[in-house]
Amino acid sequence: MSTRRKKIYEGKGKILFEGPEPGTLIQYFKDDTTAFNNEKKAVLEGKGVINNRISEYFMIRLNTIGIQNHFIRRLNLREQLIRELEIIPLQVVVRNAAAGSLSNRFGLPEGQALPRSIIEFYLKDEKLSNPMVTEEHITAFNWANTQEIDDMMALSLRINDFLSGAFGAVGINLIDFKLEFGRLWENDFSRVILADEISPDSCRLWDSQTLEKMDKDRFRRDLGDVIESYTEVARRLGIMKEMPTVIQGGLH
How do 113-123 and 40-43 pair as beta strands? Predict the structure, then answer.
C-alpha cells in the first residue's frame, strides 16, 4: 500500500506519490467524494476503483489517436503509473449543453444544447473556489502563454469529439467535462499534454433515453445510487464487468 511512499500532493479524489523512477509519479484514486468546494463530503466504497479503470480506458484510447497524456500504465485496482508534469494551474471545461454553473449564470434550462461547444478556463485554486478566468488573466499572470492556450483549446476540442462519440455509442450524452493539462519538459522545450483523469467525477453524463444523471451530480444533488451509476458507465463502455462483485466484496 502507498502509505510508505512519499506523498507529493493530495487532492479531493486522488493522491500523488513519488514514482519508482525519476520523471514518474503514482496516482492513487480515493473513494472520497466532495462537492461545493469541499462543503459536502462522503466516502463512496469502490468509487476509486471504477474511476481508475474508466480513466485508464480513455487515456489509452486517446493515446492511440495521437493525444498524448500522462498515463503510463495501471498498477493495481487503485493506482496508475503516470509521467510527472509541471501542471498548468487551470481547469479547462468543455460544455456541449447547458448545466450546472452555466445554467445558473445565463438562466439556461439544464440540457439545452449550446450553439457550439464552449470552452471555459477556471483557476485551479480551491481557496478561491476555482474562479472563472479569461485568456487575458491567464497571459497577464503567466499561468500559460498564448501558444499553450491554443494547444489546450485544440486538444480539448479533439478530446470532446472523441469522448462524445465514445459515450454516444453506448447511449450516454456528454453534457460537459473538465480537463487538466501539464507541461512535459524535454531539455529546454516543453509541450502541453493531458493530465489528471477522465471519469464520472470529471464529466457530466446523462442517459440518452431517460436523461438520468450518471455522474457526480448524483452525489451533489442527493439522488443516490452514485456507485451504481458509475458502475453502469463502466459496464456500457465494456470495462470492469467484474465491478459489482468487487464492490460487494467490500473493497478497502
Answer: unpaired
Record the cell numbers describing residue 194, joined without a space. Answer: 493531458
Task: Report how far residue 211's alpha carbon sits from residue 206's, in angstroms, rounded to the nearest whole number.
Answer: 5
Q: Please enumerate in sequence order all residues whose Cβ is within 8 A of that of 158, keeping only pairs 6 or more positions apart, or say none.
A: 65, 67
Between CA 240 and CA 212 the distance in angstroms is: 21
Question: Residue 162: how many CB atoms within 10 A of its CB?
Answer: 15
Q: Which residues, given as ranges, of the chain have pLDDT below 50? A: 2, 244-252
Distance, in Å, from the CA atom of 69 to the CA atom of 247, rounded to the nearest integer, reads 29
Residues 6+ positions from 150 with CB-CB distance below 8 Å: none
Phi, psi angle pair for 195, to nearest 5°: -125, -165
Which grid cell sits at 15? 493522491
Model confidence pTM above 0.90: yes
The three-state secondary structure class of 176 is strand
pLDDT of residue 245: 47
DSSP label at residue 112: P
**CA 128, CA 175: separation in Å to the nearest integer?**
25
CB 85 within 8 A of CB 184: yes
Q: According to the model, what pLDDT value does residue 4 have?
A: 77
Are 175 and 97 in contact by the 8 Å Cβ rule? The answer is: yes
Instruction: Please report the domains of the chain, with CATH numbers, ordered by start residue.
Output: 2-85+228-245 (3.30.200.20), 88-207 (3.30.470.20)
Largest CA distance in the chain: 52
The C-alpha atoms of residue 138 and residue 115 are separated, in whole angstroms, by: 25
Q: 68 phi and psi, to 5 degrees?
A: -70, 140
Beta carbons of 54 and 137 less than 8 angstroms apart = no
